[in-house]
Amino acid sequence: MPAGKPRRRRRSLTMSKKTPAFRRVQEKAEEEIAFARMIPAGAFTVAVLVIDQHYHGYTYRDVTFRKGDDVVLNSPFDETEDIWVGQICKIRTSPDQQNTLVKVRWYWSRNDIAAQNKCFDPSQCAPYERVLSDHYDYVSPYAFQDVVHVYEYDDSSLDPPMLGPRDFFVRTTFLHRKKTLKPRLGAETCLCQAAYNPFPSELVLRTAEGTRLPHRLPDHRDVMHFCPSLKCRKWYHSSCLQTIRGNTDVLPTETRGLRLLAVNPDEEVLYTTLEYFYEQDALDNVPSTDKVSIHAALLMLDRSPDIVAHLPQSVLVIAQRPIVRCSGAPAGFAIGNVSDVVLARRLVYAAVQNSGNPASTDRFAELLQREQARSDHVLWPGAEEDDAEFSARIARLGEEMDELGLLATPYERYWERRKEEYEALEELFEGPALVCPKCRGAI
């Protein structure tokens, strides 16, 4: 490693742990004053030692670090889950530009938190999960190793990052003087409010050893179900919902998929076209069958099944799946299939709303012709459109596209691959039919 590797202390990189509290406060204040007198800078470049794959040795390469970057710093824990990670808050340099100092806000590992708060259970966090603290230090540029990305993970998100066992992610902050997490892990999860750990230690250990992970579910699992409704957006343990009466779906199993499809991620109410399938008599005039397809449902509702003909069958299947996750599950199911299902449902809604492919409607053709005419006018000699006018025009176009329900064209190969992965992990979906305890929608 380059010279200048800092010694890790949470108070300051220059203070002794035996320094009295008042002295530590004084020294911190002196550091802040000295740093404030330096000249602000936007970035710095330093040579860092890296493995040279070609020569099977080590070499130096220049790495540029910028304000706002998440970074890895030198430490005695480089090959462990406690590797030091921080966020660059400010960069300053001396007037002669010979000395640079960086203000770093620390991401703490689960073991760092446990050392500060004896009541904290580190098993609540994944090994490479980080907690953004309000503690910072002033660090030499030679202490930096590399730029990394720490993903923000929100349990209520409809499009969470697709994380792997060794990806850094953050979902809460740590107030180091109060020794508390804010928000508390699990505070917005399930009825039990137990924190969810997507990547247990044994899974991460296997990836570190280079072991190929099996494409199967953990032996001991408690599948969680997600309600995407705008007024809910919450995960529930299957076991917790089953302990309370009234949380199972008692309506006909033949239309279960249609009830799942009706839970609208963009509204507080069910999707209007499909809410009929929440009525007890929805199957009165339908022959007995294992499952009512969306094509049959559209015929029941006096709509043509051709309006979804442009969508791959895999999209229609995934749109009618529950949204689930399971700790340690492969194929992205440790984080959950929420983004897949939400997008698939939106594609179906757009088809129903526009009676077919939104890109094939007369309204879409009108928008294209109008914008082409405006572009021709703008490009005509003597015609001009300033930045404000251009921004306003694009904003209006975006609103009109939203009203049209136009989404990205489904990439059939992706959806077919995901459908196969769903089928390989069918055990995730084989539990009891559940409903959200808040909105009563199928989940």
Labels describing this entry:
globular, alpha+beta, 9-stranded mixed β-sheet, 443 residues
Question: Any overview of this molecule?
Answer:
The radius of gyration is 27 Å and the shape is globular. The chain starts with 20 loop residues before the first helix and ends in a 19-residue tail after the last helix. The longest helix has 18 residues, at 362-379. Strands 1, 4, 5, 6, 7, 8, 9, 10 and 11 form a 9-stranded mixed sheet that branches. It has a 3-stranded antiparallel sheet with strand order 13-12-14. It has a two-stranded antiparallel ribbon with strand order 2-3. Residues 1-18 have low confidence and may be disordered. The protein is of the alpha+beta class. The protein is 28% helix and 19% strand.
- This entry's quaternary arrangement is single chain
Kindly provide the radius of gyration, computed on alpha-carbon positions and rounded to a whole number of angstroms. Answer: 27 Å
Distance between the termini: 51 Å
- How many strand elements? 14
| Low-pLDDT sequence parts | 1-18
The description of the largest β-sheet is: 9 strands, mixed
Which strand-content bin applies to the residues? 15-25%
The helix-strand sequence is: HEEEEEEHEEEEEHEEHHHHEHHHH
Shape by Cα distribution: globular
Helix content: 25-40%
Output the structural class: alpha+beta
Give the helix tally.
Answer: 11
The chain-level mean pLDDT equals: 85
Describe the structure concisely.
With 443 residues, this protein is of the alpha+beta class. The strands form three sheets. Strands 1, 4, 5, 6, 7, 8, 9, 10 and 11 form a nine-stranded mixed β-sheet that branches. Strands 13-12-14 form a three-stranded antiparallel β-sheet. Strands 2-3 form a two-stranded antiparallel sheet.
